[in-house]
Amino acid sequence: MVRLSRATLSRIAPAARPLAEPRVTGVVHLGIGAFHRAHQAVYTERAMAATGDDRWGICGASQRSTDVADRLRPQDCLYGVRAGDEVRVVGSVRDVLAPGDDLAARLAAPETAVVTLTITEKGYRRDPPPTAIGRLVSGLRARAAADAGPLTVISCDNLPDNGATLAGLVAELCEPALLEWVGQNVRFPATMVDRIVPATTRADLDDMAARLGVIDLGAVVTEPFAQWVIEDSFAGERPAWDRAGALLVGDVRPYERMKLRLLNGGHSAIAYLSGAAHVSEAMGDAAFAGFLRRLMDDDLSPTLDGLEGFDLAEYKESLLTRFANPGLRHRVAQIAADGSQKLPQRLLDPARDRLAGGHEPRWIALVVAGWMRHVTTSRELDDPLAGRLRGDATATAAATVNRLLAIEEVFGADLRENRVFRALVTDGLERLNADGAAATLRALDAGPP
Fold first, then answer.
1. How far apart are CA 419 and CA 433, in angstroms?
2. Residues 392 and 341 grouped into a single domain
3. Domain check: are 10 and 77 in the same one?
4. pTM for the predicted model, two decimal places
5. Which of 262, 284, 401, 446 has the least C-beta neighbours within 10 A?
6. Sorted alphabetically, which InterPro entries does this protein's record hold (predicted)?
7. How confident is the model at residue 127 (pLDDT cuts 50, 70, 90)?
8. Can you tell me the distance from the alpha carbon of 414 to that of 392, in angstroms, rounded to the nearest whole number?
9. 134 burial level (CB within 10 Å; 0-12, 13-18, 19+)
């Protein structure tokens, strides 16, 4: 079987061929993993197809390895996306840079008008190169020197106020003259992105080859659902993403909180309490599904506002349906990674909101206890703070809670000192240590704790 490329596109059914063929590279993307290829790249191709404007080809940049470049370059950067039963080759990516390639030159090119990022929560660090933020600042410096015009830089990662967060980190690495130029020429709109994209497996690649009739080593598998909410604040021209289904709004924050807390918070609950290998398997457990509903309804939904006219109940039902989709094979281990970077915005911020209102965030506390049990007992812990998180698995629940609550960059000083939160997490960890997650959830499903 031959490899996917522009030379072999004729072997693919016309309905599955790319919607657009960009002639110019107008977007640079940092962190060209599976999520970007299933989300922003798809929206960008649809925008070009809707308008005929072919200036928005994407140059992706890998941050840590040559894997994506090695997969996509021999395919002329084409790759297939399977969303449910629909399969289509996407053609919006024109090039992929490997680490060490000249990213600054791409960022300084006058035809580049937009930079997008999916570098995960732990990518937002206050370090100089070779981090993604450091490479971005180097590119901005080159663009200012070339007088190449305005630029819009869009974080598509799961961070609260991701636009302002990115702008702040960039500012910290800029010298005064560059900072002045950035203030005049660069915008950092906030966004909310939503699409479940599991890591691609060998079985996925085999399935894609069978469906397309060609070998595709860059294929991604996702769900039919996709959402993109973007703050309408751009420095210059942009793809017509609104023509492709994106929502441009004045304030992204209500949508951002909704997604971070309900979808991502629900994912964290699955990661640390379900005991399942895949998300859909967790939803097959009635006791766990009942717990997830209580978490969403009792602890998370009351912390959301600014969604007038939006059907929150319908959104939560759609999440439960999406989680139960057996076709995604979303690995729980993938979600469990980097928990110290994810918990604050997903669960700890809503816990603060509930405590401030005089309520006990009991269900949130149980998920936090599950995370504490996970970091204490896991043989392999994938987390930037792994060395500080690991501890004595035989310690009492109270001792473990005391030790982990003291990590201020995760819990802050407020939650460390909050007696209600400490007591709830300790009680949850005692239950989990004594009975395990399954029995604990079954007991909760039978009645209040």
1. 21
2. yes
3. yes
4. 0.89
5. 446
6. 6-PGluconate_DH-like_C_sf, 6PGD_dom2, Mannitol_DH, Mannitol_DH/Oxidoreductase, Mannitol_DH_C, Mannitol_DH_CS, Mannitol_DH_N, NAD(P)-bd_dom_sf
7. low
8. 25
9. middle
